[in-house]
Amino acid sequence: MEKMEHTILEHQKGDRIDKVISTLDEEWSRTQVQQWIKEGNVLVNGQSIKTNYKVSLNDLIEITIPDPELLDVIPEEMDLEFYFEDKDVLVVNKPSGMVVHPAPGHLTGTLVNGLMAHCKDLSGINGVLRPGIVHRIDKDTSGLLMVAKNDMAHEKLVNQLVEKTVTRKYRAIVHGVIPHDFGTIDAPLGRDTKDRQSMTVVDNGKHAVTHFHVIERFKDFTFVECQLETGRTHQIRVHMKYIGYPLAGDPKYGPKKTLDLNGQALHAGVLGFIHPRTNEYLEFEAPLPEEFEQVLNQLRNSH
To answer: Which fold has domain 2-65?
Structure first.
């Protein structure tokens, strides 16, 4: 079991305890938090409380996070697009709008549900809720993911991510016109203390590096390719916002007036890695989704 503490800040006072806690981590649902409170896993100033407790400034919240339940993932037939598959690894092109893995309170309709219907042999290193998932991309980001079909493949692919030998290139549309053709953003990332569901640049955050180059410029937007050196949560989205060019359509980090998109204009287009068994370097490229292409064409026409 993991323990976490949080002191109530000015902007949180007066809110219900279950609402506050569910904003501390994007994977915690309010239903799940309410269950923790009922089970006595949440204390305020050392005392048990009810789910409708209204927090006060400087309340000390102590959360005991139970170990993940070993839930059976329900296989669901889906029309998934596979770019590669053998007995160790598969590469899948995740559509925008699809969550990668199940979470308590959200057990169906995810990529993992579809993968379980496609093949039963996925690695179990991350537990039943995330079988085979080596790395992930956000719900509204489309593109390529590598999936491990056994524990040997899982360990070797994760090691490549740690050693920064995996090629990950993303295409994005950002607000503003970037004047220079190339850039590197080296800025550490961590949780935003004012909004725990968001990431931000912080002095004591985790090392994060994004390289980018400009593909095409428009009147008020720029089409860029970003290459990840590290793979932190929301890394490209936060880094581009940090330098003043937030992603178009990004509901969390971008401006409200933006392009007509269902989520951020971000596509994981190129994925390359060393095969865990053959040691051969493999690289795959997925074209931009139709909606992304349509927005680019609209920008070209208006430009």
So the answer is: 3.10.290
